[in-house]
Amino acid sequence: MDLKDFKSGTYTQQRQYRSFTPSPVNHTWVWSNPKINTLLEDANHKLGALDAFSRQLPDVDYFIRMHVIKEATTSSRIEGTKTSVEEALLTSSEINPERRNDWQEVQNYIAAMNNAVKRLRRVPVSTRLLKETHTILLSKGRGSTKTPGEYRRSQNWIGGSSLKDAVFVPPSHEEVDPLMGDLENFLHNDSIDVPHLIRIAIGHYQFETIHPFLDGNGRVGRLLITLYLVSKGLLTRPTLYLSEYFDKHRSLYYDNLMNARAGNDLAQWIRFFLVAVAETCNNGITTFGKIQKLREDIEGKRIVQLGKRLPKAKTLVMSLYRNPRITAANVTTILRVTPKTANELIQDFVDLKILVESTGNKRNRVFSFVEYLKLFSE
Known about the structure:
By secondary structure, this protein is mostly helical. It has helices spanning 34-56, 60-78, 85-88, 100-119, 127-137, 176-188, 196-210, 217-231, 243-248, 250-263, 266-302, 310-322, 328-335, 339-351, 370-374, and strands at 9-13, 18-22, 325-326, 356-357, 367-368. The chain has two domains: 3-287, Fido-like domain (Fic-like fold); 305-374, Arc Repressor Mutant, subunit A, CATH 1.10.10. A hairpin with a 4-residue loop joins strand 1 (9-13) and strand 2. The longest helix is centred in the last third of the chain and has 37 residues, at 266-302.
């Protein structure tokens, strides 16, 4: 099908509202708009550069955790959850009770994402994986009553206070299984020639249009993009997350999805998506570059001044890349040293301007790797 001939679907009159049934997507797609070609070329080039950079960065898995936390906070923010990267690093006992529900949703997202990426080694991007991911995403907190891990068995809607004044009403629940089956087949159909970035752009649009779960569709749909790119080998590690771009351009994100449905303009959604990929890759490369520069400064200049403590200092630095927030008790456990040695090494790190005490307390002090945290909060 040529994108210019795309018909998004049909409306079905229900009792007091109209639901929208999207057209199947499992077929070959072509386009006559040359702009898509240039945007696709640029996005593929940038994606390859990001992946190459991540593969060249030593110990890259240490830094992936912070990328995951940033994605979890940003993707959840699009849905109205307000938790910062710094708050996401807190434990349950440390978080303000008034903010615990938001914090829990972010923790669920982190756990869901980590599990999904791990499961990709054995399970393809599929209904099975999406349901498993959704189960974890809604396992605790506000979404736990929204049938975690199951496609919906009732009508949902987007925008508005009810079905009567909704901005958009997805297909009826009876249509979810066949539509998701068509989407799954499309993502894995080797008999059609559709570039991976075009395929997942259409796939994300279709998933959000089907809205197969009662809750969590936005987060699962955005995670689907990363899982697909990793599963197809375009990314060696899960280093690309589009939520930050979608959040920054939130109105355009929603408008382009809705215009594809209401105006049959799937081509514009694809153009928006490809620009998002290219710009996010650029940002990712910049962040990895800053990480590399910071490592060279800390590991090559600052901690080398610690003499005999250097081996333990190196171990502590690597731990801080994974979790840039630490206490003396943490250091005691990580390094298997006495509390006295742990406090002495922390003070060395404070003197070297690696750690900053963040509570102002004399007891139960918490130290943050502020320079590193800023790279994920900018």
